[in-house]
Every structure is written in C-alpha cells, then in structure tokens.
Model the fold of this input.
Amino acid sequence: MKFMETKIRKIDKNQIDQEIIEEAGTLLKEGKLVAFPTETVYGLGADALKEEAARKTYEAKGRPSDNPLIVHIADYEDLKKIAVNIPAETDILAAHFWPGPLTMIFEKSELVPYGTTGGLDTVAVRMPVDPIAQALIRAAGGFVSAPSANTSGRPSPTTAQHVAEDLSGKIDMILDGGTVDIGLESTILDMTVTPPMILRPGAITAEMFEEVIGPVSVDETLLGDESEKAPKAPGMKYRHYAPKAKLMIVEGDLREEILAIRQLAYAAHRENRKVGIIATNETLPFYNYGIVKNIGTRENEKTIAHGLYRVLREFDEEDVEEIYSESFAAQGIGKAIMNRLEKAAGHLRIPASAVIKKQKYRTVTFVSNTDSARGPMAAELLRQYELKQEYVVNSRGIVVLFPEPANQKAEAIMKSAQMTLEKHTSRQFDSDSIQEDTLVLAIDEAQKEKVLAEYGDNGNIYTLNEFTEDDTEIPDPYGKPLAAYGECYEVLRRLVAKLADKLDSLAEEER
Ligand code: AMP
Ligand code: MG
Done:
C-alpha cells in the first residue's frame, strides 16, 4: 500500500467549521477515506455506495473482507433507499434510539454494493448522534460506511490520537473532535428475524429494547464461553481488541478479586516479571505492585465503558507480559463491557478463589501507646523487607486522642537510616484493627493486655518479643533525648529482622 499524507483537522462539535466538513465530504465523494468521531468510537468513513471505497477501507484496516461495514446515515428518510422489507417496529425503535448508538440490520437494497456488506444480502445501518458525524454524512451524500477506525485486532479508537497511531499514512484525513462519549461500539440489532436479535451488546441494552418493543432475543454465541457456533455478526468471531500482553479476567466477589490480583502481582514482582492491573477508582489503593491503571468508577459503569479501550491501548505501550483485570457486573452497559473485555482476553477467565493462596496473616498491625514513635518505626522497618507474601503493614495506638504526625525524634532517627515516617498519622486501635487475618503485635505487654481485655483473644495477638521469641526489652524513649530513640531503633531493627524471618518461614509452611 502506498504511503499517503494524512491530514488532521481539529473540529469542535459545538461550533462546526463547515469548510472543514466540506473538505472532508469532498474527499469521501471522491472515494477517499476520512476518520471521524461518533458518540461510540471513531469511525473510518468511506462512501458506502462505492464498491472501491469499501475495498480501500478493508485494506487500510487490514480487516478481513467478509466482515461487513455499518452504513451511517443522517436522515431517517434515507433508510428506505438502502434497506427493503423494513419491519414495522423499526419506526418506534428509531424514534427512541436514533440518532444514537444503535445499529439495525435489514435486507439491503440494490443500491448497496456487496463490498460494503461483506457479500451479505443484509445491510447494517446506524444514525449517529454526534453532530460532526451527522454533518460529514450529509456533506458526503448521505451514506457513509464506517467501521471502527483502528487497525483490525487493536482496541477501537476513542480519540483522534488512537486513530493516528493506527492509520496515519493510510487514510486521507482525520477529523479530530476530541474524546468520544461512550467509548464502546454500537449495539447491533438484527431486524430480519422475529423477535429482533441482539448480535452485539452496547450502550442500548436488552432491557431498553424491551420497554419499547417487548422482548428481544440475544445471539447465543454472546452468552457463553467460546461457543462452537459462529456468531451472527461476522465481526464478532474475530479475536478483536487483543492487547499485546496476555489479559486475564479475575472473577469472584470484589474482595476476592482484589486479593487474588494482589497476590498475582506480588508474585510477579518477586519474580521480576512486569504485569499490569486493570483497577477502578475504588480499588486503586489496594494495589502496591504492577502497573495499575484506573479504568473508571464502579459508581458509574459508563466511565468504565469509556475507559476500557484507552486502558488497553495504554497497556500496549507498557512492556508488561500479563494484565489482570477485575470483572464487572454483566448488567446494563456492563454486558457490553464484559463482552469486549472477554474478547480482549480471548475468554481467559480465572476464578479468584482458584488463585488465592492460603495466607494466615495478610495484615500486620503494631500497637503502641500513642502510635507516634515505636509502632510506626517498627511498621516502617517491616515495610523495607520484600517478604515471600505481601502484607498490609500498619500501626495503631491505644490512646490516640487525635491524629498526629510521627514524633520528630523518631522521624530524625528514621531519616538517618534512609527511611521516613512522613506519611504516618497516628490512629486509634479499634475493632477494625483485629480482623481474623491480622497479626497484632504489641510493643509492650501492657498494650497487649489492653487489646485482650477489650476485644478478647482471637489467637493472633502477641507482643513483638513473644512472636519473635526474643525477650530483648524495647525501651520507651518517650520524653528522652534523641539517643534514646536511637537505642530503641536498634532494638526494633533486630526484632523486626527476626519477625521478617518468622513471617517468611510461616509462608514457607503454608505452601
Ligand atoms: P465495526 O464497524 O468495527 O463496528 O464492526 C461492524 C460490526 O457489524 C461487525 O461485527 C460486523 O460483523 C457487523 N455487521 C455489519 N453488517 C452486518 C450484517 N449485515 N449482518 C450482521 N452483522 C453485520
Ligand atoms: Mg471494529
């Protein structure tokens, strides 16, 4: 294929520059290729009524030519020109969902070349809501075929930069209208069967159709795992959206998923393997290892739909060998999210429960009086170790009246040992501090007694001396000069080294 210069034109959907639209429309009329924004993803536009334009589209995308294109229209009246035997429900569906992220399949008219329909006698039609798309379609004569503007097999583009990454030098123009709204391709509804059948899930869901025309069916190949049957939308059979790294979807309840991914990422870290994690706003803070990307917030699944392809593309830039993804509820737009994610993962799903390794302690909590010196020092010392298992390490106080930074002398001592308590704020020990998987280590016997008296003995409460089987007294430096903090540090350092060994041997026993 010969290299061509790809013009990039910025365009604002709230203030459309008609000159740019004319320029792009003319290119399309000449049978050339123009990528443009729609509300779903960026489309690679061509004149839908020209066989030759379809051929160029397949070539630029590297797409198998049995995978039909969706014809985009801007005026409902135009549907009648390209489709025949249009069923009666179409009007009401169009009234509800057009313009919008819905593609409907009809028997095609003579006007539509087989190049556009991948040899099928049916045609897929959509009326996008994006004003840039609408203006361009009109300027191009009314019928614009537009598959996603990516190289076949890469995640669909949600920005003009994504399009340029894939198609620069292969197409004539990119209209840069910024980031798309939805970020996943349209819902495809086959209107040639009764009741209509969803061939690809998207932002318009089965429930939404049901409210308008009653129940619809769903292509059964979308429901299960790798089905033997060929999906009815030819494009759905290809392993789309595949990131370079091996993507695995971890499934379970969210707590298990986080734990499983944490363990996988920690194991990878210890083996020097680079891995990625697809996390959400809510779960981000739980991951300490691996390259973690925020796909969106669980409070609004639309943000997750919007972030998916961006995150997959970002991971292609990182040199990670595996990506672990949390999973999402397959409800509403979640169906479309999981459909795309599963395709990207080549249906590689792993149950969190099968991954989670037995680990008696997942949290180590040091308890001191005020959580301002000895507890935080011990915690920071333990954090320096790369242990065989990952632990959340923290500290709590028996009497913390209000949150305070660490004691300044303690901080000075830690600084001289290339550590810091900068991030520390003192916190009161409470019922949350003694979970089943928390190892509670009191600095003094007195604190242990207080915890036992208040919360009872769950078998995981020790003094640091007891647990490490070393009775070197940990001096209390409070109110004493800096040197006393130094002495205390030395004792803690030795005890924590023993603690690290002990935790590792416990981990070894658990294997
Ligand atoms: P894309 O253009 O990347 O959004 O992909 C278009 C999708 O629509 C592919 O999965 C196609 O297989 C599907 N499609 C287009 N036309 C038809 C049709 N006539 N019948 C069934 N599926 C179609
Ligand atoms: Mg596509």
Observations:
- Residues 482-510 form the longest helix (29 residues).
- The mean pLDDT is 94.
